[in-house]
Amino acid sequence: MPEQQIIITIDEQGQVNAKTEGFQGDSCITAVVELLGEQINIKNLKKSDEYYQSQTVKAVNIVENKRGG
User: Fold this and answer.
1) CA distance 37 to 54
2) pLDDT in tens, 25-48
3) 2 secondary structure, DSSP code
4) Alpha carbons 51 and 20: distance in angstroms, whole number
5) Is the pTM here over 0.70, yes or no?
6) CA atoms within 13 A on the CB side of 26
7) What is the DSSP string of 35-62?
8) pLDDT (average), residues 13-30
9) Which pairs count as long-range contacts for 7-14, CB under 8 Å and 24+ apart, including other chains?
10) What per-residue string of b and e applies to 13-38 under the rule 16 or more CB within 10 Å gives b?
11) CA 30 remoteness from chain centre
C-alpha cells in the first residue's frame, strides 16, 4: 500500500488547502475531515485520477491443520 499523506497549506488570507496522496476513493475526504474536524467548509473539491481508482482489499485466509495427537 502506498504511503498516505495529507499536505495542509494556509495562505496569507487564512484559506486552508489540503492535498492528499496515496488515498483512493472517498477515503481521502474522510481523512481530511478527521484531521481538520467536521466544522470545515469545503468550497472546492478537485478529484485526481487516484480518487477514481478502486480500493483493493486483500484478505488472507489462514488454514491450520490440526491433527489428533
Assistant:
1) 26
2) 888 888 988 998 877 888 888 888
3) P
4) 10
5) no
6) 1
7) HH-TT---------GGGGSPPP------
8) 88
9) 8/35, 8/36
10) eeeeebebeebbeeebbebbeeeeee
11) 7
